[in-house]
Write a sequence for this structure.
């Protein structure tokens, strides 16, 4: 695991974008795994400024989606990915995929998404954020390290952390469809980004703590090609 500490979220965005564009220029990026939330925003901003067509043939596969939210809702991950990734990076919308959070399709949502990832040839570079609970994707503490895409329940802490995106806390969905930890670990390369003091405990636990399902991000210690880019605030508890 390679750890890169940079001074600011903007520098984090540039360092992550550098890595992604290097892979794209080398012809090693056909499928980019994308995360939502605040962590990757500086990455997408830097990519939008510098990609200029270099990512136009890339397929994007999102990590997760809320259950029971209309895909047109501004905070559905369908909408967020469209607004923050597809449009600014100039991706072909038909090559951007987000799990199906429709209640009617739930029994097969995980299996269908796993099939889609396989049909795309797997993820070349997976961008990840980490939650205060140590989750990656929406694999909350206790998730099996071998898990595949499935329905999960969000913890009260994650629902409260994500309430900032909704009018009221009660509007934050309770369930999600998320790639599993085993699914994420299948990516050929993983790139975790975290910034700000609120992430320092989760970063220290994931990078330097024991590998345990109680800190799902710690599974990345077992990945053969993992890079963690953090700003100084998020790195504050690393020894
Ligand atoms: C989002 C996702 C989550 C977030 C995590 C951190 O697709 O999978 O793991 O990366 O909740 O969220 P932020 O970046 O908003 O702090």
């Amino acid at each position: 695991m390679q750890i890169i500490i940079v001074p600011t979220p903007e520098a984090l965005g540039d360092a992550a974008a550098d890595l992604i564009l290097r892979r794209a220029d080398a012809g090693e990026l056909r499928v980019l795994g994308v995360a939502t939330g605040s962590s990757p925003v500086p990455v997408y901003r830097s990519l939008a400024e510098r990609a200029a067509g270099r990512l136009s043939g890339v397929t994007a596969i999102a990590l997760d989606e809320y259950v029971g939210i209309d895909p047109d809702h501004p905070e559905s991950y369908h909408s967020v990915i469209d607004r923050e990734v597809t449009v600014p990076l100039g991706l072909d919308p038909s090559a951007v995929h987000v799990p199906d959070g429709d209640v009617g399709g739930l029994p097969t949502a995980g299996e269908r998404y796993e099939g889609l990832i396989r049909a795309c040839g797997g993820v070349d570079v997976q961008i990840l954020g980490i939650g205060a609970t140590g989750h990656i994707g929406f694999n909350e503490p206790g998730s099996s390290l071998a898990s595949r895409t499935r329905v999960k329940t969000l913890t009260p802490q994650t629902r409260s952390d994500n309430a900032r995106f909704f009018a009221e806390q009660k509007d934050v969905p309770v369930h999600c469809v998320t790639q599993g930890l085993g699914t994420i670990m299948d990516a050929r390369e993983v790139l975790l980004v975290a910034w700000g003091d609120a992430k320092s405990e989760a970063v220290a636990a994931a990078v330097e703590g024991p590998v345990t399902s109680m800190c799902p991000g710690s599974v990345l210690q077992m990945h053969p090609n993992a890079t963690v880019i953090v700003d100084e605030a998020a790195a504050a508890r690393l020894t």
Remarks:
- The chain has a mean pLDDT of 97.
- The radius of gyration is 16 Å.
- The first strand starts at residue 2 and ends at 6.
- The beta strands are 2-6, 31-34, 59-62, 64-66, 96-97, 125-128, 150-153, 175-178, 189-194, 226-231.
